[in-house]
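Data deposition worksheet. Section B asks for the primary sequence of the deposited chain exactly as it was used as input, without tags or linkers unless they were present during the calculation. Section C holds the resulting structure in token form. Section D is free text for depositor observations; keep each observation to a single sentence. Incomplete worksheets are returned to the depositor.
Section A, Depositor: J.P.
Section B:
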Amino acid sequence: MLDNMNNSCGTGNPCPEAPPDTDEELTEEQKCQLEQAKEAAIDSLARQIAKDIMKKRDWKNREYGAVIIRNSAGELRVTELFRGTSLGGSVNLEFSISSSDTIVASIHNHTLDNYNNATGQVIVTGRPQKVG
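Section C:
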């Protein structure tokens, strides 16, 4: 479970951080490696959020969601896990960020009623979105 107060991701260890952007001249291979490291950190947090959603007893009947945000220093943080309405309802994500933050992922689940499917699903959506 994510511990949003100290960003420990429930492990006692710090959450994975994406390497900060650098002003140094990088080769194309280094740029690619840097982007891969950033994506891997986001993916790791998204997988943990998905696990946290699926630990909820009612996750197949109620939507839950969270957002991953990167600040200007490249550090990642996760909003709280928001609880939505039941019976195929939606989840209202209310959080505040600064104009220099970037939303890098939105994670939420769909209920069984939402798409008339046999199992619930957890979905990771979003490309980085600059706010402000």
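Section D:
Confidence is low (pLDDT under 50) at residues 1-13, 128-132.
The longest strand covers residues 62-70.
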